[in-house]
Each structure stands twice: as structure tokens, then as C-alpha cells.
Design brief:
Strand order of the largest sheet: 1-2-3-4
Order of helices and strands: HEEEEHHHHH
Oligomer: single chain
Distance between the termini: 42 Å
Shape: globular
Low-confidence stretches: 1-5
Largest sheet: 4 strands, antiparallel
Length: 240
């Protein structure tokens, strides 16, 4: 069983993030009356530093029906599915070294019989070919639809944690110095061909291969301005 991170309680971790709804405002009809909600699916994925080369990625998926939809007198939402998954990932190989699935809510007694099957995640690398391998092992009748969808949602977090782990390790060491050029290349290379921006022939990748600095990401520029921090002085993106 995966050890739970002891440093913070769930409520304390919630304080570190914006937990407001990620959806736009609820829709209304032509008369301005809110449409009736009939289903809610929520994914939540968080990552925790276990060591300088290891991360715990914790995810959950939950399906709910609104009050009164299935049982008219019921004032509470009804949870149909609630699956949780912990995986430990080692860096830089992105190998899964531990996996644990928990079913908190499910429709059939037989649902839980598939839980141990997800131990086959151990030994896989969340790198090239991972999505295809997951479908082979857990797709369709070989797994739980909801848990398999959760795995696919969690995998990209492992890649994004390359940058997060680098920043956390620097802080743990009492330094915010920039990673070496070789380390930066190792970090961004994991994104190759994951989307149009990171296509191997894109302007971004071409520039990086020619030694052009990546620059400060769009999501950080406004925050740095608010804090009065010069972009060029922000260590993780500075040149060697």
C-alpha cells in the first residue's frame, strides 16, 4: 500500500490551490432560466514530492447525480462512481514503481474484482507508447472504464512534474539556480510531439535546438509583473 504524504492535511493542501470550479458559468435557456443539471463528472490530480527523484501522483474521478434525480425525496447528490489511484513515479525514467487503486463508490458488486489488475502498471514508463500500452492492458473489458480514463488523465502530470521537481529540489537545496543546458534539454525533450507547439518541427523546438532560450511562459508573465520580479532575474528560466 502506498504511504500517504504526512506533511499536510487535505484541507491544508486545498489552501495551496484554486479549487473553484474550472467550468464556465452554468448555461441558461433563451428565457434566462438555468438548464437542469443531470450529471457531474470531476477529475482531480495532484502530485507530491517524495524524494529528489520520485513523485507520488494521486488522482480521483467521481460521477454524481443531482439531488432528487434518482430518488425524488433525496436532498443529497448521489455518487455513482468514485475511483482513486495512487502511483509513484521515478525520474528521469518516468517508471511507475507503485500503484494502488481504491473504489469508494461503484454500481456493481463485481466492480472491485478488477482492482488488483491495475498492479500491472508497475514497471511501465510514462513515456512514449504509454497510452497505447494502457489501452492494451486495461481497455474495454480488460479494466474499469473510469479508472482507465483516470490513468490517461494522470499520465501528463508526471511529465509536467519534471519542471516542478526541478524547482522543488532547488528550493530544498536552498538554491534557485538555473538547471544546466543538458538538464533543460532533458526536461523539454519529454514534451516532443505531445502537441502542436511541441511538434519536432515547430518554431519552439527549432529555436530550442538552436540554443534560443525558452523564455518565460505566458502564464507567469503577469504574475511576475504583479510581484515586481524582472523576468530576466527569474532563475529557473535564466541562461547558464
Amino acid at each position: 500500500m502506498t504511504d500517504r504524504p504526512p506533511a499536510t492535511t487535505p484541507s491544508a493542501v486545498d489552501d495551496l490551490f484554486d479549487t473553484a470550479s474550472v467550468l464556465p458559468p452554468d448555461p441558461v435557456d433563451e428565457d434566462g432560466i438555468p438548464l437542469r443539471a443531470v450529471h457531474d463528472r470531476e477529475y482531480r490530480v495532484r502530485a507530491f514530492r517524495l524524494a529528489e527523484d520520485r513523485v507520488l501522483i494521486r488522482g480521483a474521478v467521481r460521477d454524481q447525480k443531482p439531488p432528487g434525480l434518482y430518488i425524488e425525496i433525496d436532498p443529497q447528490p448521489l455518487t455513482i462512481h468514485h475511483m482513486q489511484l495512487d502511483i509513484e513515479v521515478s525520474y528521469p525514467t518516468l517508471e511507475i514503481t507503485s500503484a494502488e487503486v481504491v473504489f469508494e463508490s461503484h454500481p456493481h458488486e463485481q466492480c472491485v474484482s478488477i482492482v488488483d489488475h491495475y498492479e500491472l502498471l508497475v514497471g511501465l514508463s510514462i513515456a512514449r507508447g504509454f497510452t497505447h500500452r494502457v489501452r492494451e492492458l486495461f481497455g474495454g473489458p480488460r479494466g474499469c472504464t473510469h479508472t482507465t480514463a483516470l490513468i490517461q488523465a494522470m499520465a501528463p502530470v508526471a511529465v509536467q512534474c519534471f519542471f516542478s521537481l526541478e524547482a522543488a529540489n532547488s528550493q530544498e537545496a536552498g538554491s534557485r539556480s538555473a538547471p544546466s543546458s543538458e538538464r533543460r534539454e532533458e526536461m523539454w525533450a519529454m514534451n516532443l510531439n505531445t502537441c502542436h507547439v511541441w511538434a519536432e518541427d515547430s518554431d519552439v523546438v527549432t529555436g530550442l535546438r538552436e540554443g534560443v532560450a525558452m523564455g518565460v511562459p505566458v502564464f507567469l508573465r503577469g504574475r511576475l509583473d504583479e510581484l515586481g520580479v524582472q523576468s530576466d532575474d527569474w532563475a529557473p528560466w535564466a541562461e547558464d
